[in-house]
Amino acid sequence: MSHRRRVVTGAAAAAALMAAGCGADATPEAGTQTQGPAKTQTAPAPAPASTTPKPAAAGPVLKPPLAFSVRRRAQLRTSPNGRVVATIKTKTEFKSPTILAVAGRKPGWVLVRTEVEKHHVGWLPLSAGHLFSEPRTIVIDLSARKLSVFHRGRLTDTYKVAIGTDATPTPRGRFAVTDRLTTGDANGDYGCCILALTAHQPKIAQGWGGGDRVAIHATPHTWTLGKQVSHGCVRATNKALRQLMRHARLGMPVTIHA
Question: Which of 46, 107, 189, 250 is the most buried (most CB within 10 A)?
Fold first, then answer.
């Protein structure tokens, strides 16, 4: 099965992000202007070369963190051979290959991080897929409003970000990237690019009907950076998201802390 990136057009990606529980920007500061409605592009932006991991050759020990590529539909369980709580398919809801961050291992089983509500971690049989090594991780510091990228434990990049409001805070915890999407409209509310996460927003704003999935996405409204303005998503510049898109793999671990 190919593990190439999934690229969608502007309208589809914007709809996906609204389903991810992210709202448009709040009122800008004096002297700034908001962007007009996003225009749907008929052709997607060119996708860079794939950075999705390939299976390691048999023999070498994989270095953590690890990801698990689901090659056949499998039942997610509360423990090895335990109660079934969900079915994990080979494609995500946004049609990307299903590659999940690994939280633990037992003989014949892997503990994975998923977007399944109330079961953000669960066990899958090792026979349902393949393990990979994930060289990079993302850490988001909510207090500092900063997103950091690490390669094998070494800091490589930092970006200033906007986060959720006090009423709709960005959730804390350990998550992972599930989908990599381009919008085709860098001037729209969601900027050029989206990294959908396994995270859910537990505090939905009154009247919000867009779902509860959380993402890291771009924004052309740079006045929002460093502030608490979103419905829970994390925002950075278009430049930052383009750089992240070049390095982020499906299943990439994401830690969000205060």
Answer: 250
